[in-house]
Amino acid sequence: MSSNPEGTKRERDGTDQEELPAKPIHGDLAIWGPRIATLGCLGLNLWQAQQIPGPHGVVGVTFPFFGTSSQDRFAAQRMTWTLASPLLIWTIEGYRAANSMTPLALPLAFGVATQVFGIATVAPIYYACSLFTGDVPSADKKVDPLAAMAVLPATIIGHVLPSILMSTLPLTATEVSRSHFTLQSIVCYAFYLSPITVSVLTRGISAGVRWLRRKWHSTSAPVKERTKEQYVQAGLDLPALQASYSMMLVLQAGQQLPGVIEALRILYDVLEPFSWPDRLALLIMNARPGSISHILGTEQEPSFSIGSSLTLFISSTMAFLLYNVWDLRRRGYITNREAVKTALGLSAAPIAPGAAYAGMWLWRENVLCRVR
């Protein structure tokens, strides 16, 4: 290894294989085999998303809140809560150095597209773009610490709070159409604009904190302020990222708990008239998007469209996360044991996809920091 400190740092960031936890796996097959398989899964999910009936995007998600069906409201509520993790993670990835000059540097565009076309359509496209931006040294995967710190409150204010209000307020079409300034109208517009709000708040909060730090240093004892690059170089982005991912993991897990209970109740109501062998046969034979709605004969109800969209999002997310586990193992950043344990942990994704996404990215950030 070079005795030059900068050379040592450069080797540590991208080329020094002796300090890696495991031996890297080389060869085109190790790179392109899993990548092509993942792209195939994403492409299939994207095609299936176009076959889902009913309105897509924010219209399809918010419409059930104006109705009286508890099943439709439950499906819409779970979808709005789940969207918090992609919104937070995609915003962070937009500030990652490795993603500059790539489509991932435009999280606002993907967020707005999600509101228009739906998460089942946009997620496979985003993940496909991400597959081709990972071949960079780990040093380039750092994030502006102030942006990493600002994205959590921005997501809570811009998306989580409107989602909770959408789920709890008694929304009626009459009240919303009566005026743009009623509480119901404001909540709906806040949810519609949540990707824009999160992006603006993230940039505004980070800029405000940076300005306050400069002002504090100018009025206090002379202390040399670190630049953004120096904060990143010192690894100060990790605590902020860990806090953001951890809090989102807790929020998503807590929000999904009532949903899991409700889903089990609905499943029990559907299968109660059947004997246990018949229940098992129904679950196996109808193990596809919207299977419960198919059993009930409610394929045209909003809950079917939302449930199908959520199922496709979960499928795309699991394929993408499993690919990331393999990619980290291929590079030698993790051991075989770590890869297997993490892959098994992703089995919780169908129950709490947002929590699984945030938890996986928290673990991934720690791995990337370990090999910097």
From TrEMBL:
Domain of life of the native organism: Eukaryota
UniProt-annotated stretches for the region Disordered: 1-21
Stated name of the protein: Uncharacterized protein
Record's keyword terms, sorted: Membrane, Transmembrane, Transmembrane helix
Membrane spanning stretches: 104-126, 146-165, 186-206, 304-323, 343-363
Provenance organism: Gnomoniopsis smithogilvyi
